[in-house]
Each structure stands twice: as C-alpha cells, then as structure tokens.
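## Example record

The block below lists the input lines for one assembly entry, exactly as stored, with component labels intact.
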Amino acid sequence: MEQPASFDDQLASLLPRLRRFAHSLSRDSADADDLTQAAIERALKSRDQWQPGTRLDSWAYRIMRNLWIDTARARSRKSAREAPEEEGLNVGEDPREAMDASLDLRRMMTAMGRLPDEQREVVSLILVEGFGYREVSEMLGLPIGTVSSRLVRGRTALLAMVGER
Amino acid sequence: MNEDEKFFAWLDGELAPADAAEMEAKVAADPKLKQLADQHRALGAQLRGAFDPIAAAPMPEHLQAALRPSAKVIDFAAAKRARTMPSLPQWAAMAATLALGVFVGTMVPQRTSDPVEVQGGKIYAAAALDHALGAQLASAPAGDVRIGVTFRDQSGAICRSFTAQTSSGLACRSGGKWQVKGLFAAPEGQGSDYRMAAGMDPNLASLVDSTMAGEPFDAAQERASKDHGWK
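Predicted structure tokens for the full assembly:
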C-alpha cells in the first residue's frame, strides 16, 4: 500500500495556493509573502493540532486567514499613514505578457483591498481559490447564508470597480 | 436565500439540480439577468487571470526555506521588523521570538479564575471571557478568546460566538451580563490552541443558526453596538 503523503509534503504542495490566497488578502506582494511565511511557520508549529484524515488545505487556509485578521489593526494603521504606491513598480525589461499580468494583479489587489475584510475573504476563497460555499462556511465559522450574502455584496462592489474596461 | 443570492449560487454551481434548472430558465428569459451573468463570469475570469500566475510562479527561496525543518523561526512581526530595519542583526529578531515564546508559555497555566460563573441556575461569562465579550472586536483579537460572529437573537438581544483555547460557545446579553447559551469542548487532540486551528464546532454552528435573527453584524455594526453598550 502506498504511504500517504507526509504533513510536510502536503504543506509544500499547498504553498503555491497559499501564496495566491495571501496575495488576494494583502495590499502588496511584500505583505503577501510575509503573511505566507508566517502561515507556514504557524502551520509547522501547530502540526499536532491537524487531525490526519481531515483536509489539510482548509486547515492551512484557516491559519493564514486568522493571522491576516490578527494583523488587521496594524494593517489599517499602516495604510492610513502611507501614501498609495506609485503605479508600475513591477515593470521590468519588457516581456509584454509578464507586464500585463503584473498590472492586472496590481489592479485586482487594489480593488480587493477596497472591499471590507469580511467580504474580501469570502470573494477570495470562493472566486479565486475555488472553495464551495459550505467549505468556506466551515472554514470561517459562519452560517452559509452569511457567506452567500457577503459574496453577493463583495462581487457586486468588485464588478462596479473593475468591470468596465 | 433571496433571489440575488440564488442567482449567484446558480452561477457558482451551488444550486441543487431542480433549483438550478429553474434559475437557468429564468436567466434565459431575461436579457438583463443574462448580461449580469456574463459580466460576473468575466469578473471571475479576470480575478483568476490576475491571481493564478502567483500559484504558477516559482516559489521565492525564503518561502521554500521556511518549510525546511532547519529553518529559523521568525514570527510575522519579526519579519516585518527585519524588513523595515535591515540593519537589525538576525539574532535580535530571534531573541524577540524566543522571549515571546517564554512569555506565552508561562502565561497559559496561570489562569486564575474560571471563565464562567453560575447564578440562579444560569451560566454567565466571567473573568477573561466576560472581558473579551464586552471589549473585543472580531477584527482585533487579543488574548485567549477569539470573537466570531455578533448578531441579534429573536428577542433583540445581542449575541456573540467565541472560541477560547479549549472550547467554543455562544453568549447573549441579558441583564447587563453575558449569559452563556452554549459551551462546547474542543475535540480530542485539539486542545492547546483550538481557536487558531479549528473552524466552528458543528453544534455551535447550529446553535448560532437557530438563535440568529437576520444577518450577523459587519465590522461597523459590531463597533457601533459595542459603543452603545451592547444594547
């Protein structure tokens, strides 16, 4: 019989998705990578609390989300203090495609950043990360109706911000 | 679920087949709804197009390194300090982490008073739990208790769900105190930091569902409600 993948291997394979989730929660890539690193470290430290047989991804996402909430205060102080960043920081030596991708990313991160936290996390988990309503309801400890109504408000606001190109 | 929510649930493939067929027909017959569906499908594609490259990009070395057992332990705050103060020697950040570990370690077993008290056959929050329920916002957790959702029950009283280290529960405002409506122990083996590792206990989730009237408060409502003394 094949050995089930170890905790470490599973966590390693989740890393790209966790980093994507961090980007949709954070205001810039540096914050996103700090959050990713903090979540990995917290997951490694708390590994005994994960119950084998349950989903590691939900567990790890939840750790990241809680860390993100924990830094909410510091985050809002920081963004009130700092002027918005200049556009185009990531523009490298052309490849046109790479540049477009990073501008899209900046634009979406800015728009997501203008959503209230409780809408942003739901939009991110369902529309970017592809979780189902029930999974998100369990992950966030919210009734499913709340997940659904926050998602409606969040995606409606987001469409108003970025829909017209 | 209202019609808006039903429409989006359909769009996300979350409706049962019969409901989905009904919504499908409704959208097909309504050009405005059809346009809305297209716009939101395009929004979903834009979101994935913006964020998916992150998951496909090579992983930065320091994040790879964080997974290795020999990796240095740096907490989030220390990583930020290191970023804003590049001249700070690495060992200082590590020492700060160690000090935090020792501090937390000595705090935990010294809990001196019980989180609940019984009066007239009813259970009320006390000590740290009472304080957290009265003072803490879900967006700004502090200490051992994490606040979940805040909402009004059918009688209009404010209720808040909470998760402590080994248990979770629901308390509602009654006579100027927090009456505990339900308290659930953490599952076996999840004792030491339940509030970080677990989602809502299914028993608590159904208690919340059956108690709640309307919607849970958003962050602004929660703060306003605190400012009004949870009335």
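Chain B has three domains: 3-56, 61-109, 116-227. The mean pLDDT of chain B is 78.
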